[in-house]
Design brief:
The protein is α+β, with helices and mostly antiparallel strands and 165 residues long. Helix content is 22%, strand content 35%. Strand 3 and strand 4 form a beta hairpin.
Length: 165
């Protein structure tokens, strides 16, 4: 699959928490918490990303559990991101053109989480490999979401025109 696809996933439930008690609180909810910062874990349906040492992003149905009363040392983080998913064989070319992240240099087994700039917009980016096809999740401030999505669509179109296949 060489063609790039761009999917808006902003409709998915999303929540965030941070604080010194966040990891233990999430574990008590039955979530598998990444052991180190800037890593992520898949959930049964969705994912959990550890952003730094004590901040977490949960996306998918499990995010609804984070709307409950928080424990001491656990603070909510408002997540109103635009969430996008890119997938296809030309993903690395798109990333090199828009943000200089070389996904081929990253080991998807380590499940890295990156904070970078894409087309001038700050994004949280998670590269992955699914069935040998590269993909990446990305989140940005919702006020830039439409612009970033449109810009990425234009780059995808340009890459499709230059692809000899």
């Amino acid at each position: 699959m060489n063609a790039l696809t761009l999917t808006d996933q902003s409709h998915l439930p999303r929540a965030g928490v941070k604080g010194p008690g966040a990891a233990a609180w999430l574990k008590n909810l039955g979530l598998l918490v990444p052991e180190s910062g800037n890593c992520w874990q898949p959930l049964s349906s969705g994912l959990i990303a550890r952003l730094g040492q004590s901040e977490y992003l949960v996306e998918g149905p499990q995010a609804a559990a984070l709307d409950t009363t928080l424990a001491p040392g656990v603070y909510p983080v408002l997540r109103q991101d635009t969430a996008l998913y890119l997938r296809g064989g030309q993903l690395n070319a798109l990333l090199l053109e828009t943000c200089s992240v070389d996904c081929l240099a990253l080991d998807p087994v380590t499940r890295p989480v990156l904070l970078t700039s894409m087309a001038g917009v700050t994004v949280t980016l998670i590269p992955e490999l699914h069935q040998d096809i590269p993909g990446c999740y990305l989140w940005c401030d919702h006020t830039y979401g439409t612009w970033l999505s449109d810009t990425l669509a234009e780059v995808i179109h340009a890459l499709s025109l230059s692809d000899p296949r």
